[in-house]
Amino acid sequence: MPRSVRARSREIERVLGRVENELGRQPTEEELAGALGVPMDEYYAMIEDVSSTALLSLDEMTYGEDDDKPVPLIDTLRATESVNALGQLEREEMRDLLADSLGQLTEQERLVVALYYYEELTLKEIGQVLELSESRVSQLHTKAVMSLRVKLRKRFMA
After folding, report:
1. Which of 155, 141, 146, 156 is closest to 16 using CA atoms?
2. What does each C-alpha distance from 110 to 80, 117, 129, 145 come to in angstroms?
């Protein structure tokens, strides 16, 4: 993925986090576009451009369990057989935080996330169900994922 697209994705996430803090809630698309200083058509184009950044990069820096210094995400992965009490507690905490964060999305965003990840529908199929274009479904999905990322980062990077 080009650097410019990754940089744009980080910028949108940064502005989304700032506006969320200011408003105390998830901003509307219009509020987010205003905070980014772009018209709605340009906002939609930006969301479309960064929609592929919803995937995690294993090179992305995060914090390891034992250190306060950033390490690549790939270095924090473990075999699935290694289950311990702390790991189980962390997973439960993550699940609760994710559930709470999902509850803060708009109803349409929650529905797109549920249909995409739980029902495993394609964006095109979701568009048919919701009577929206595939492009609009992609925008809703991207905004929802970015919002969830911001909330999770706030919690685990704080």
Report:
1. 146
2. 29, 10, 14, 10
Q: What is the pLDDT of residues 16-75, one digit of tens each?
A: 889 988 988 888 999 999 999 999 999 888 888 887 655 555 566 666 555 567 767 666
User: Which domains does the chain show, CATH number per domain?
Assistant: 3-157 (1.10.10.10)
Q: What is the CA radius of gyration of the chain?
A: 17
* Letter string b/e over residues 62-91, b meaning 16 or more CB atoms within 10 A of that residue's CB: eeeeeeeeeeeeeeeeeeeeeeeeeeeeee
Q: Which residues pair with 71 in a beta bridge?
A: 62
Distance in angstroms (rounded) separating the CA atoms of residues 84 and 75: 18
pLDDT in tens, 82-133: 567 777 887 888 888 888 888 889 999 999 999 998 888 999 999 999 999 9
Average pLDDT over residues 124-151: 91
Tokens (6 digits) for 158? 């704080």
134 burial level (CB within 10 Å; 0-12, 13-18, 19+): middle
DSSP state of 27: P
